[in-house]
Amino acid sequence: MTNDKLLLVDGMALLFRSFFQTAPSGRFMINEQGVPTNAVQGMIRHLFAAADEIKPTHITVCWDMGKDTFRTDMFDSYKAHRPAPPIELIPQFDLAQEAVLAFGLHGIGVKNYEADDCIGTISSKMADVETYILTGDRDLLQLLNGHNYVWLLQSGYGNWKSYDAGLFREEYGIEPAQFHYVKALMGDAADGYPGVKGIGEKTALKLIRQFGTTEGVLQGAHTLTPSVQKKLKEGEEMLRMSEKLAQIHCDVPLEWSMEQAMFTGTDDRTFSFIEAHGMKGLSRFARHDGYAEVDPFGLD
């Protein structure tokens, strides 16, 4: 392992969470140009709260690049039921990406893929780098592999639950790489795929602990109760589709390097951005020298 630390951030997860933390009370933090900024300000606060704990030498924020992906190509109903984003959030999508760059952070997104896939692709290549994934999405737990951590945001700022592969095994009784099989069986209402009707998380976990994979479940279905056999038989086609939708793809054709992700701190762009968009609440993050340890004798 090197002395580097890499933080991979699920940008949209932080942005949406930040928006809905303050939106119910009507706190949209509208600037002089009439643009709401609550989601962007919250996202930066969440990001640096975690970064101050982790002290990463490298940071990349990963973005979704539109609603159309290879998953919607496979399954028309994937995320199709989700309501349109609130009008106060829409102008903050582009503003969030601008903020990331203004704070000296690296951002990336690839058309036809989700941020999860970009995070998975980068993380899978970092066997020699201590890697942290910051998200509010439990799906990313499937990426735990022994050299990384998934930090799941909790309510409030600076609160998260940190998972490594060991804690995941302890809580779920399966390997992280098996988690997408569980999601395939139980479905995901938020993402719009049903899994097997009538099978919830508890039963799905029990089945994967016993049979290992969805294919194993189908092959061993004759040993299960008539009720579960019937559900699996009727839901087999959707189960196979749900498995494809639930699995994070770690082979995204992206251009990324540790050099690009190096975080050396903020600069004049940060102050200009804060002033231009009326985000004085972020001023305390504007003077940052990064987290890398600097050799005072200049020998590094």
The radius of gyration computed from the alpha-carbon positions, rounded to a whole number of angstroms, is 21 Å
Number of domains: 2
CATH superfamily of the largest domain: 5'-nuclease
The average pLDDT is 96
Q: How many helix segments? A: 12
Decide which structural class fits the backbone: alpha/beta
What can you tell me about this protein's structure?
It is a single chain. The chain has 300 residues and is of the alpha/beta class. It folds into two domains: 195 residues, Rossmann fold, CATH 3.40.50.1010; 74 residues, Orthogonal Bundle (DNA polymerase, domain 1), CATH 1.10.150. It contains twelve helices and six strands. Strands 3-2-1-4-5-6 form a six-stranded mixed beta sheet, sandwiched between helices. Helix 1 packs across helix 2, helix 2 runs parallel beside helix 4 and helix 7 packs across helix 10.
Topology:
Layout lengths: L4 E6 H12 L15 H17 L3 E5 L7 H5 L15 H13 L3 E3 L6 H10 L5 E6 L12 E6 L6 E4 L1 H8 L6 H8 L14 H11 L2 H6 L6 H21 L11 H4 L6 H9 L24
Parallel strand pairs: 1-2, 1-4, 2-3, 4-5
Antiparallel strand pairs: 5-6
Helix pairs in contact: 1-2, 2-4, 7-8, 7-10
How would you summarize this macromolecular structure in one to three sentences?
The protein has 300 residues and is an alpha/beta fold. 41% of the residues lie in helices and 10% in strands.
